[in-house]
Amino acid sequence: MNLRSVHAMVILLSAALAVLFGVWCLGLYGREGGVVRLLAAIAAFALSAGLIVYDSWFLRKTRTLR
Amino acid sequence: MDIPYTVEVRRDTGLTNGKIGIWLFLASEVMLFGALFASYILIRTGAPSWPRGDTILNVPLATFNTLVLISSSVTMVMAWASLMRHRFGTFRIYMGATILLGFVFLVVKYFEYSHKFENGLYPSTNNFLAIYFTLTGLHMLHVFGGMMVNAYFLGPGSKLWKTNPEWFANRVEHSGLFWHFVDLVWIFLFPTLYLL
Fold it and tell me: Which residue has the higher pLDDT, B92 or B6?
């Protein structure tokens, strides 16, 4: 397993973490309110989508690096 | 005498010796952090009550640090990819950025620790803080160690690029694997300590 594959896996896990963080923020927003928490949740979900897009771009761009 | 299998792969393993070495080292690291995580689970499940991480710890700072570490894994892999494409100048920029991001992570952690100590929160205060300081402290040592290795490759170690570029690229890849392991540990530490 080379650095390319490990990086792709770490970014995927980071995307999963961003989703978890978004859900956590939503939970907090549901219990205690606060617009900042809602915005943080939206930002986390957007970041997660961004990371997945980056991951597929990275894998495409580095196909020749083994 | 030359070190064997630094660039060419061994026929029996299909890998270079350096890569086998780093994976064996990472396996031992998994056991180290695995034991600490297991201790955390045992202590937490056995405790009559357990504090919510976000009531004691600074979640926004830790979120910022998570973004810093994820960014550093991107710059680290770009440093290696630059070497694979024979762009040494670009490698230096990305490697420098990786070290800088590691430094930012440590500075933020310093402020987080200082704030805890100012408020009288020490490892001896309770089990939660004992686990928090042990896990994050060990993780910080790993970040520092990774920074030192990366700084070596940016500085004196980069001389190898002139004489054996493929070996140098392999060494940077091994350093990158360690750096990604450090990122991976944080990806588990952050939700475990701060969110759950």
Answer: B92
pTM to 2 decimal places: 0.95
Domain interval for residue A30 = 3-61
Which among A1, A4, A5, A7 is the top mutation candidate for probing chain B, defined by the most B β-carbons within 10 Å of its own β-carbon? A7
Burial of B43 (0-12, 13-18, 19+ CB in 10 A): middle
Q: Is residue A24 part of a domain?
A: yes
CATH fold of B17-195 reads: Four Helix Bundle (Hemerythrin (Met), subunit A) (1.20.120)
Domain boundaries, chain B: 17-195
Total structural domains within chain A: 1
Predicted complex ipTM exceeds 0.90 = yes
How far is residue A43 from each of residues A23, A40, A59, A64, B133, measured CA to CA in Å? Answer: 11, 5, 24, 33, 29
The answer to whether B53 faces chain A, any CB pair under 8 Å, is no
Q: How far apart are CA B174 and CA B23, in angstroms?
A: 9
Cβ contact (<8 Å) for A17 and B184?
Answer: no
CB contact under 8 A, A11 and B70: yes
Q: Kindly report, residue by residue over B146-187, the tens digit of the pLDDT.
A: 999 999 999 999 999 999 999 999 999 999 999 999 999 999
pLDDT for position A66: 66
